[in-house]
Amino acid sequence: MILAAAVPQVEAPALAAEQGVIAYPASFFAGAAPTTALDMIQRVPGFAFDKGLAVRGLAGATGNVLINGEPPVAKNDTLDEILKRIAASSVERIELIRGGAGGVDMQGRAVLANVVLRSGAGFKGATTGSVAYFYDGRVFTNIRSEGSWRWPSGRSAEFSVYYGYLPDATYGDGQRVRYAPNRSIQILSDVEADGRVYRKFATGAFETPLAGGKLRLNGAFQPFTQDLDITDRLRVPGGVEYQHDTSVWDQAELGARYSRGLSARTSLEAVGFQQWKTNAQKSDFRGLTQRRFGLDRDIAETVGRAHIQFRQSPTISWEVGGEGAFNTLDVATTLAVNGAPVVLPAANVTVEEKRAEAFATVTWRIDDHFNLEAGVRQERSEVTSSGDVNLSKTLQFTKPRALVTWSPRAGDQFRVRVEREVGQLNFDDFVASSTVANTGVVIAGNPDLAPQQAWVFEAAYERRFGPSAAVILTARHSELDDVVDRIPLFFGGVPVADAPGNIGKGSKDELIANISLPLDRFGVANARFKAQGTWRRSEVTDTLTGQKREISAVRPVEWDFHFVQDLPRWKSSWGLDIAPDAGIRERNFRLSEIENRKFDTWIDFFAEYKPRPDLLVRLEVLNLTERSFQRERIVYAGARDRTPLLYTEVRDLRWGRVLILRLRKSY
């Protein structure tokens, strides 16, 4: 289905409340001289880009941007990378779809953006090279190239390649202090930590008319290696601790989509996807205790999806379809302490999952002001595990959804959503974790997990002040079942380890504010800022203490801020970005410890200059604040509900500034 045929083309930004769509033509972005479709998407007022989730299956994995009305059939080739390959000159307009539109598969979202491409033939490409100078003297270089062809016959092809090194900004230099319960210092050390990623990838796609419809094929091969070195030079009590981690990934994917109209009101779309991943991890810790951890895993996913859309009338459309998936995980893990093997729960397992889902959705444009989208999904899955854990279980879930949109006037929209959400099982929870090497804590695997479920009640109000300014307020309440957190594992009635597990009912409340505002009225010409903040409160009953607490790894606050000013006279622009993980905190509750992780605010500066339409020079200064990452471990002698405090350890690592120079040549 091509959305461009479902809504009219407009030559200027226009509110179209009766259709649920705002269309921003390319001219709206011209003052910013965007280079790629991603540049344009990031400047759409009132829209927060989401590249998608790392989940199995296709629903929810593709992000919140469509291209010519269709989501990409890719996962490892992420949505932001796909949008970077689309030259801004190839974009006819960006359509912002709010609250649903007839004939549009909203992928379970209330708001989507659609990139509508220009028709025409020819080749467009670009090569970007960059060099990064790091605070510690390291120099990394990267190069990427992409291109696309379009032919009058309707065929098209595209490619991208990348080669380079990236740092891991979680690790830097700092200090580690371990306090005894009486606050005396047990360990005081100076920490030097360096993390890096060596990445390369090649992606490609081909699209052609076929049998009255359209076929698109895409593929990607993306191997990468992660390395981490941590050296602790102990001032108290003396000595050196050293840890070296490596993780080698080889991953590839193939995808296909075929779509065609069956009649004037009916269309068919079929999608196939296959991916393969292999991963080898090694972690070597040397100190008073020697620990070596190893993990080898193979993951494969096969997905097929098909749906039919039927436009019953100008105001009512239907969609019915189904998705089937087959997923496999084969893992072998080892742990040795001082040369002696240690048995890990769920260390060597083979897991298979067969999952099927049928769905039906109706979109009803009741009148010029009201829109209703309602649907239901029925999911059934079979999970089997062999090896250290032998089990077989069947899971079934019914997932209804209703979204009502009321647009009383062109600049206002109210949205109310009620939905039964079911989370995806994370294969990483099925096996032992590599954190046993650097902390000595056994985090076991658990293939006998049920996915977390929730009744979600959401209300949103969107106010637009013309085409360039918007404020969106969203309140969301979730009633949770089978919350996935940490559970203790018992041996002989004694807790010996913890693992991912279901810990019962819980709740989560969220308040989200999103604002986009041009600053001309405040005397700053050609400038605007976008900001988003999320305040979150979660609650669950702790399985050990029986007391109420927040859910592990749920962040109470998240926010980001973006300012940009265009300087057309100098063919330049500049801006500041505060990263989405600015000033965040998350907490994890385990068997014998509570871990607190805190990231200070990260601010980037950028300035770019386009001396010619085909040449871009960009300067970036990353991490102006020299952000620190703090990890606090509150460790008990055993289970934290029945044993005394053993020690509290605080590691504070600071990462310095980075200077990056990029040069992009289009052709």
Features of the shown structure:
mainly beta; Ferric Hydroxamate Uptake Protein, Chain A, domain 1; 30-stranded antiparallel sheet; 4 helices; 37 strands
What's this entry about, in short?
With 667 residues, the chain is an all-beta fold.
How would you explain this protein's 3D organization?
This protein has a domain at 1-118: Ferric Hydroxamate Uptake Protein, Chain A, domain 1. With 667 residues, the protein is mainly beta. The chain contains four helices and 37 strands. Mean pLDDT is 88; it is low at 1-18. The longest helix has 6 residues, at 79-84. 3% of the residues lie in helices and 63% in strands. The radius of gyration is 26 Å and the shape is globular.
Secondary structure: elements and pairs:
Layout lengths: L13 E3 L4 E5 H4 L7 H5 L23 E3 L11 H6 L6 E8 L12 E7 L4 E13 L4 E12 L5 E12 L5 E7 L5 E26 L2 E9 L2 E13 L2 E23 L4 E21 L4 E21 L4 E22 L2 E2 L6 E18 L4 E18 L3 E19 L2 E11 L13 H4 L13 E12 L5 E12 L2 E8 L2 E9 L3 E13 L8 E15 L6 E2 L7 E11 L4 E7 L6 E5 L3 E7 L3 E10 L2 E8 L5 E9 L8 E10 L3 E9 L1
The count of helical stretches stands at 4
Taking the alpha carbons of the first and last residues, their distance comes to 31 Å
How many strand segments?
A: 37
Main beta-sheet strand count, sense and barrel state: 30 strands, antiparallel
**Would you identify the CATH architecture of the domain at 1-118?**
Beta Complex
CATH topology of the domain at 1-118: Ferric Hydroxamate Uptake Protein, Chain A, domain 1
Average pLDDT metric? 88
CATH superfamily of the domain at 1-118: TonB-dependent receptor, plug domain
- Tell me the strand percentage band: over 45%
Proportion in helices: under 10%
Structural class: mainly beta
| Low-pLDDT residue intervals, each spanning 5 or more residues | 1-18
